[in-house]
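Let us begin with a simple case.
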Amino acid sequence: MFTIGDFARHGRVSVRMLRHYDATGLLRPAHVDPANGYRHYTAAQLARLNRIIALKDLGFTLRQVHDIVDEKVEAEELRGMLRLRRAELETAVVAERARLTQVEARLRAIESEGHMPTNDVVLKSVPAVRVARMTATAASFDPEDIGPVIGPLYTVLFRRLELAGIAPTGPGVSHYEDAPEGGGRITVHAAVQVSAPLGSGDFEVVDLPPVERAATIVHRGAMATVLPTAQTLARWIDAGGHTSVGYPREVTLECPENLDDWVTELQAPLDEA
């Protein structure tokens, strides 16, 4: 038998944790010396300890772990629990990757302060364009909130266009406005140029008005990394004494499978000169 300290070392856990498992009945010592109360464990108990730690790392509560290792949970129920937990972990991984992308974008924006040339900005007029679009609301204009909203919108939009027999005639035109309910929420429009009658059905067909004066810049890469480009555009607007009116449109010029190869033009509407 092993003392509690030896067993903790072999199991790569703390003595404190083993005492807690003992107190909750999750992992009792194989023997407790009646004279001094010292706990002793066997090597065979490492198997139960391994299962406990694995289930804990999967996010199960101690009550759930207790039922699973004591075989109070049917195999089918356990499979369902594990599938659910796997889905939760996958969602968390995606969210953390998106957060890491935003941290990297913010870092690049800081590193590029004063270095990114603003001569890439072009002042031009943007003609009116007819688009089919779908609309939803995002919690904010943060890319972490916009991305999960606009991606699915485009997926549904293109599927419905195909069912309606309408082919896009130009690039996607994502545009935004403050949501009526306020609170920093954003109305997100996922749109694409079409040649179709005005109206609405499974999607809306509208004419976006022209923009007489727009400051534009081309961003190369995934929209999750647009921050440095967007802030270069903002510096140009400020340096020129202009005033932006509303959110920039995002015109997708190229959208290959690899997001890092995307080419998107930002079009920031300006006040009249």
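The second case is a distinct protein. As before, the sequence precedes its structure tokens.
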Amino acid sequence: MVAGFEVAPQFDRTALITALRADQACGTTFPEFVRGCWNAGIIWYDVDTTARTCTYHGANGESYTEDYPPVTLP
């Protein structure tokens, strides 16, 4: 730990995708999803609603982008 901050885990793409798929299947709560992202080395994510993407970022410049299909509301 550095000056009261926890050091981010290493980026783990497989663990991130596992956390994403569990969340997408409604298998986790939001806090569980965020913990899964943290455990996969994600320190922040950026949602682009125009491009319909979410990019997850690791501490050392790594990233993973997930595309999302358009949604039609009734």
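The longest helix spans residues 13-24. The first strand starts at residue 42 and ends at 48.
Keep these points in mind for the review questions at the end of the chapter.
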